[in-house]
Specification:
Layout: H1 2-6, H2 17-28, E1 41-43, H3 52-61, E2 64-66, H4 69-79, H5 107-126
Parallel strand pairs: 1-2
Helix pairs in contact: 2-5
Length: 136
């Protein structure tokens, strides 16, 4: 995304392996099953300059599009810190919910996803070592 490029980054940046392991453990120990995937996210911050080619590339590479993950990962890597994006995805056309369609939006499902997200985030934090090791 443009923000990441302006900060001196570009290309793909990975999540912290330690945090990914903590997330996997947390997901296996939540109070209720949480539907989840571990996937690549495309980050874009310029809505008005998107092209069909960008959409095709995202469709081939990424499971979701957001505005924050890229810069979060870039700044964390630059600082030698761990980073992990854990998100509730609200606009999932592939799951039968067209965010641009005429059907009513499932706010109840979104609120449930936020509750699950909070549970998983708390579980992740409780599994972190103390002190947190340096990023390898």
């Amino acid at each position: 995304d443009n923000t990441t490029r302006l900060a001196g980054g570009g290309g793909e940046v990975a999540a912290s392996p330690m945090l990914l392991r903590a997330a996997a453990e947390a997901l296996s120990n939540t109070r209720r099953p949480v539907r989840h995937i571990n996937a690549v996210v495309a980050t874009v911050d310029t809505f008005h300059h998107q092209t069909d080619a960008m959409h095709r590339e995202w469709g081939e590479k990424a499971a979701a599009v957001d505005m924050e993950t890229s810069i979060l990962y870039h700044l964390a890597a630059r600082a030698g810190a761990h980073a992990l994006a854990v998100m509730a995805v609200s606009d999932v056309r592939a799951a039968g919910a067209d965010p641009f369609g005429d059907d009513p939006f499932d706010y109840g499902g979104l609120y449930q996803a936020f509750d699950e997200l909070a549970d998983v985030a708390v579980e992740i934090v409780t599994r972190l070592p103390d002190p947190i090791p340096a990023l390898a």
